[in-house]
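Message: A physicist's question: would you kindly supply an amino acid chain plus fold tokens?
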Amino acid sequence: MKGQKGFVLLDKWPFAGLFHTFARWQLLHQERQLLATLSDDALKDIGLNRADVAQETHRHFWEDPLRK
């Protein structure tokens, strides 16, 4: 909007891609940690077991299975 101040477009920022990659890695790490806190019954509901969770939580942060 005209006259709007304090708004930064990240697409025009030189390091926008790096920022988005870092944010995605951080979110992925948080999701893996939350997955590890689920109970066995909750894991069974989503079709996982403790071995699947252990394998996922031990992955490195840069290993993105969706490769976005």
User: Anything to note?
Assistant: The chain is about 50% helix and 0% strand. Residues 52 and 63 are 15 Å apart (CA to CA). Residues 33-68 form one domain. The two ends are 31 Å apart (CA to CA).
